[in-house]
Design brief:
Elements (H helix, E strand, L loop, with lengths): L5 E6 L5 H13 L3 E6 L9 H8 L10 H6 L2 H6 L3 E7 L1 H8 L6 H8 L3 E6 L3 H5 L1 H12 L3 E2 L3 E4 L5 E5 L3 H12 L8 E6 L4 E2 L5 E2 L6 H12 L3 E6 L11 E4 L3 H11 L4 E4 L6 E3 L20 E3 L3 H6 L8 E8 L3 H12 L3 E6 L11 E2 L1 E5 L2 E4 L3 E2 H16 L1
Parallel strand pairs: 1-2, 1-3, 3-4, 4-5, 8-11, 8-13, 11-12, 13-16, 16-17
Antiparallel strand pairs: 6-7, 9-10, 14-15, 17-19, 18-21, 19-20
Helix pairs in contact: 1-2, 1-9, 5-8, 10-14
Bound molecules: cytidine-5'-monophosphate.
Length: 398
């Protein structure tokens, strides 16, 4: 699928640059033509010789190299590729991109290109979470840039958290997804998935049995139709699909914030099983049994309804909003009432009574409710439901 594609690979300055050597190898194995652009700071970590040898290509380094300009001008270089990939994308690179700067070859190419751009960020966790980086991220996302990672984990600087660059094979999958051509190419879809965890104390939480299977299958199906997918997931028991921009959250409030951060979108699908309530008196320290034997009293507050808040936005509402209704009785009547109450366009209703085996299972039997009426689909795998629903979404956005 990638064979014959042309990637302009911009290598930023970060310790993760060493992984880019492996990325180049993986891309070459798949028949991709890689044209490397090594930034001055990237060159502090890996050499032009190793990059050029692995890529089997000349390495572009300087904006003012007259030989380069005579061979291929920077405008042409920025357009000759099918996709531009920046790995590692540092905080500084993201800031310069968000600000529209063109003060070296890499940023000039990124500003001049008419092709899609994929970023694989890598930086210290505090830099990633800094409000300035968050603002830049929002600006770049809003401009339609694709992201892969960063992942959580231990970092070269010894700290722990999000900031590690995605692994080479994850970047390859994101490249495949960014290049996928289908009816949803150029469209951005947000999906929420999985359960939320609402803390009782630092070690205990309230959750539900959602596995995240339907949401993950839907994200993969939309990706395969060419969509740029922002996948916002609670602690699910199935892994997120490759090639989508994953944001991991725990609580409903974090999910809400993440959804708002990822707008604008053409469509939003709310497949998550969000906890309706959170514990308002969650303890800062672990609750202990005491001599009185009295059980702790938990107070609850209602969580924000993420679906309703987005569906009722007066400005910037995604064109198509799809909700799910997991019901144990009067499925259709309850789901239709929910559709009008929340203000979404479609509701995917299903019966989650224990006898149905759907919640946490591999199959689903759904009814799609819209202004046009109700349509019941036969029981099928969650992947098949996802493929059919993704096709419907593509048709609605066409
Ligand atoms: O009201 P109920 O939880 O049954 O609604 C289900 C739909 O609403 C799902 O699409 C779910 O993802 C969404 N929802 C939400 N935020 C909540 C509760 C539900 O987005 N707090």
């Amino acid at each position: 699928m990638l064979s014959g594609k042309r990637i302009l690979l911009i290598i930023g300055g970060g310790i993760a640059a060493y992984k880019v050597l492996d990325l180049i190898r993986r891309l070459r194995e798949r028949g991709v033509h890689v044209t490397p652009v090594l930034t001055a700071s990237g060159e502090e970590f890996i050499t032009p010789l190793s990059v050029g040898a692995l890529a089997g290509s000349r390495v572009y380094r300087d904006l003012f190299d007259l030989t380069d300009e005579a061979e291929m001008g920077h405008i042409q270089l920025s357009r000759a590729a099918d996709l531009l990939v920046v790995a590692p994308a540092t905080a500084d690179m993201m800031a310069r991109m968000a600000g529209g700067m063109a003060n070296d070859l890499a940023t000039t190419l990124l500003l001049a290109t008419d092709k899609q751009v994929l970023l694989a960020p890598a930086m210290n966790v505090r830099m990633w979470r800094h409000p300035a980086t968050e603002r830049n991220l929002a600006t770049l996302r809003g401009g339609g840039i694709h992201f892969v990672g960063p992942n959580d984990g231990e970092m070269a600087c010894g700290e722990f958290g999000p900031g590690r660059m995605a692994e080479p094979l994850e970047i390859v999958a994101a490249i495949e997804a960014a290049l996928a051509v289908g009816p949803l190419t150029g469209r951005h879809v947000i999906i929420t998935s999985g359960p939320t965890h609402e803390p009782i104390d630092p070690v205990r939480y309230i959750a539900n049995r959602s596995s995240g299977t339907q949401g993950a299958a839907l994200a993969a199906a939309l990706r395969d139709l060419g969509a740029r997918v922002s996948f916002i997931t609670g602690p699910a028991s199935v892994p997120p699909p490759q090639g989508v921009d994953v944001t991991r959250i725990e609580t409903a409030r974090e999910m809400h914030e993440a959804v708002l951060d990822h707008l604008p979108a053409d469509a939003a699908v709310f497949a998550a099983a969000v906890a309706d309530w959170r514990v308002s008196n969650a303890a800062e320290r672990k609750l202990k049994k005491d001599a009185t034997g009295k059980a702790p009293k938990l107070d609850f507050t209602e969580n924000p309804d993420i679906l309703a808040s987005v569906a009722q936005m007066t400005k910037g509402r995604p064109r198509l909003i799809v909700g799910f209704a997991a019901e144990t009785h009067d499925v259709i009547a309850n789901a239709e009432a929910k559709r009008t109450r929340k203000g979404c366009d479609w509701i995917v209703a299903n019966d989650v009574s224990p006898a149905s085996g759907i919640m946490g299972g591999t199959e689903n039997a759904v009814t799609i409710l819209s202004a046009a009426g109700a349509e019941t689909w036969p029981r099928m795998s969650k992947e098949a439901v996802a493929a059919r629903l993704a096709g419907r979404i593509a048709a609605a956005l066409a």
